[in-house]
Design brief:
Length: about 375
């Protein structure tokens, strides 16, 4: 072992004693080394000093299959410049830190760490078993500016099982290929929960024709919340244009109180919302329909919920309020998919929570140049295998 005080570096040389017999990893034949090649690996720091291992690794030729290869060493993987312990430490740090920051901390380039991380994740994902998969969630999340998205597929235990580029029909087709490559069958999938993107629905009809599609409460109420906000903005413009600036000022900035669920409002906030609903008839009607739509999922049976949703549609159409136009189309066009919740009990709100975690990882790294790097981080943080 050599310690360089000026460069704060430790170099450890490893030598083998005596003649060693080697085994060919392909055919299991006994081999002998005929020469050696010098190799170096970076190891974990030794007393805060950079540490490197050096070893003259034997090269062997198999007499049976004729292959020439270096002997595997127990402290590092093939073609790696790091020891196993160094790689393990790097992966653990990259779970909690951006790769660039991890590289600065460990004293290596981020490109080398990405290669380590990609290899680690790819090796773990090879052992993914999807033979028992009978339901999954799918949603999109942005990966770059300019409406660049990735699609994320999650199993019933909320583990990420597949990430692919895009949010169209082809992304569902790629998932089916991935599913069948890991022991699963498209015919086994009975329930799917997704958002209301046309690409997802079209892909599901092509690739999983026997599955029941559920549009969950989160996305339906999200559309309804947009209707409430449209009604508020319309009323604010009417007041402003009519010269009632004082009333318009009182209405401005109340958006989040109107969008929040009633049970989550504080007493003072509830008083403010009650004043708005009493003072502005159109907002009150739309807000009441929002709360009525939320009641759909509180029924004990799908039959009762269907009757309630049908009554809701008739009432909403009779109001003639323009702010309700889009949500009426959504409920009317996806009536069955909304009520399928009573069969599947699947809620995509979990996916939205996971998307927020993924976006936090992306912001912490200040974005990724390649969507495949984001995919690697998704598997690392959310697959349950890494």
């Amino acid at each position: 072992m050599n310690i360089d005080d000026t460069e704060t570096r430790v170099d450890i040389r490893i030598r083998s004693k005596g003649k060693v017999e080697h085994i060919c990893p392909d055919c299991g034949c006994s081999c002998e080394g005929y020469d050696k090649r010098e190799r170096t690996w970076q190891h974990m720091d030794f007393f805060d000093m950079e540490c490197h291992l050096h070893c003259a690794v034997p090269r062997m030729e198999c007499p049976k299959c004729g292959k020439v290869m270096l002997v595997d060493v127990p402290w590092a993987q093939e073609n790696s410049g790091f020891t196993l312990l160094f790689e393990a430490k790097g992966v653990e740090l990259m779970k909690e830190m951006p790769v660039n920051a991890t590289g600065r901390y460990l004293g290596v380039t981020d490109k080398r760490l990405w290669r380590v991380l990609d290899k680690h994740v790819e090796e773990r994902m090879k052992h993914q078993d999807l033979s028992e998969l009978d339901r999954f969630y799918v949603d999109e999340t942005s990966c770059r500016r300019g409406h660049r998205y990735v699609s994320i597929f999650v199993d019933e235990d909320y583990n990420i099982i597949f990430v692919t580029n895009g949010n169209d029909t082809s992304s569902v087709a790629r998932f089916r290929e991935h599913l069948e490559a890991h022991g699963g069958k498209a015919s086994n999938v009975k329930f799917i929960c997704c958002d209301m993107g046309k690409g997802f629905l079209s892909g599901i009809k092509n690739e999983f024709p026997g599955a029941v599609v559920t549009y969950d409460r989160y996305h339906v109420i999200q559309h309804m919340s947009l209707a409430v906000d449209r009604a508020r903005r319309h009323e604010w413009n009417v007041l402003r244009e009519g010269g009632r600036l004082k009333d318009a000022t009182k209405l401005k900035g109340q958006r989040f109180f109107l969008l929040r669920n009633v049970e989550n409002l504080s007493p003072s906030q509830k008083e403010r919302v009650d004043w708005i609903l009493e003072s502005h008839k159109e907002i009150g009607i739309v807000y009441g329909l929002k709360e009525s739509l939320r009641d759909t999922w509180d029924y004990d049976s799908g039959y009762d919920a269907a009757n309630h949703l049908l009554d809701w549609l008739i009432t909403a159409e009779r109001t003639g309020i323009s702010a309700l136009r889009d949500i009426i189309k959504v409920v009317d066009n996806h009536f069955s998919e909304i009520l399928n919740w009573f069969r599947s009990k699947m809620n995509n709100g979990v996916m939205e929570g996971m998307n927020s975690v993924i976006q936090a990882v992306k912001r912490r790294a200040r974005g990724y140049r390649d969507w495949r790097n984001l995919r690697t981080m998704c598997y690392l943080r959310g697959s349950g295998l890494c």
